[in-house]
Design a protein that fits this description.
321 residues; 4-stranded antiparallel beta sheet
Length: 321
């Protein structure tokens, strides 16, 4: 019995060991399966990430390509628009050149004011045949037509320009004269080519419409003395003196006298006197002013006296007393 019990115990133990071994094997298989699943999941995740990255890269490239294509299209459109503008500008400039009378050939022009007078004669003479073409010309002139131009296949008409003038005293005799001037736009507002005048002097358009664009180089490089003076006026003589670093030629209790030569014209230069206001501002400071004086003035005292319209000696005496 003891031997049988011992055998049974051994068999039971072996069975238990076998069961444990089986359980261990199952555990290993389960772990392997889990590892495999994790590995597959990891692989799937990596593949998914790679795929996503690939898609992102593709989307980015497509987006970049689309952006580049859009930019290229915009650039082409802008270039085309610019080309169209330049072509229109060149055509307009050529037309202006022709209309102003500098070019001839198979272009012809007619002054409507001259043609319109033919209708007056036709009416006076009761020439019905002549009135058939002079009446429309006469009506067109009264309605504002100025010039007629025609080519082999096109008829152009130009409106009468709007002219802006200012009244000025005549140099001789009584009455007042007129000269071209417009402070805000063209003095001759024409379909052909607007012309800009400042107190009778023709200047570039920006001098009138955008004086803030005037630079020192525009003034110094301008060869026409009258145009240069207008630019100085619009730019500001005081500002000009300060920005070019004008040197003082005389200083005293009356003020400081500055002179600035204008490049390209040794006969023309600016002379200005800087004075200090005798009345204090609310904050206690005293403002300084730059006053333009004749180029012949050599002393600050004489310059200040000139601004008051008195003799320098009398001005000095008045100041002392």
């Amino acid at each position: 019995r003891d031997a049988r019990d011992a055998l049974d115990a051994r068999d039971a133990r072996d069975a238990l060991d076998a069961l444990d071994a089986l359980a261990a094997l199952d555990a290993l298989d389960a772990r392997d399966a889990l590892d495999a699943r994790d590995a597959r999941a990891a692989l799937d995740a990596r593949d998914a990430r790679a795929a996503r990255d690939a898609l992102d890269a593709l989307d980015a490239r497509d987006a970049r390509d689309a952006r580049d294509a859009l930019a290229a299209r915009d650039a082409l459109a802008a270039r085309d628009a610019l080309d169209e503008q330049l072509a229109a500008h060149r055509l307009r400039r050529f037309a202006a050149w022709v209309i102003q009378g500098y070019g001839w050939g198979w272009w012809y022009r007619f002054d409507m004011s001259l043609l319109a007078t033919a209708h007056v004669g036709a009416v006076e003479r009761q020439d019905v045949k002549l009135q058939r073409w002079t009446k429309p010309v006469y009506d067109a002139f009264l309605a504002g037509a100025w010039f007629l131009f025609f080519t082999e296949d096109t008829l152009y008409w130009i409106a009468k320009p709007q002219v802006h003038v200012e009244e000025v005293p005549r140099d001789r005799g009584d009455g007042r004269g007129r000269r071209l001037h417009n402070a805000t736009g063209p003095a001759i507002d024409s379909d052909v080519e607007p012309l800009y005048f400042w107190h009778g002097v023709m200047v570039p358009s920006f001098v009138i419409t955008r004086p803030d664009l005037i630079e020192i180089r525009h003034i110094t490089n301008e060869q026409n003395a009258e145009v240069r003076r207008v630019m100085l006026d619009r730019f500001g003589t005081e500002r000009y003196m300060r920005e070019i670093g004008a040197k003082p030629i005389d200083a005293s209790d009356y003020g400081t006298l500055y002179r600035a030569d204008l490049p390209g014209d040794p006969e023309e230069f600016l002379v200005m006197v800087e004075v200090e206001n005798s009345t204090a501002e609310p904050d206690g400071t005293f403002k300084k002013y730059m006053l333009r004086v004749p180029p012949t003035v050599k002393r600050a005292r004489d310059a200040v006296a000139w601004t008051f319209g008195v003799d320098p000696e009398k001005y000095e005496l008045a100041v002392q007393t």
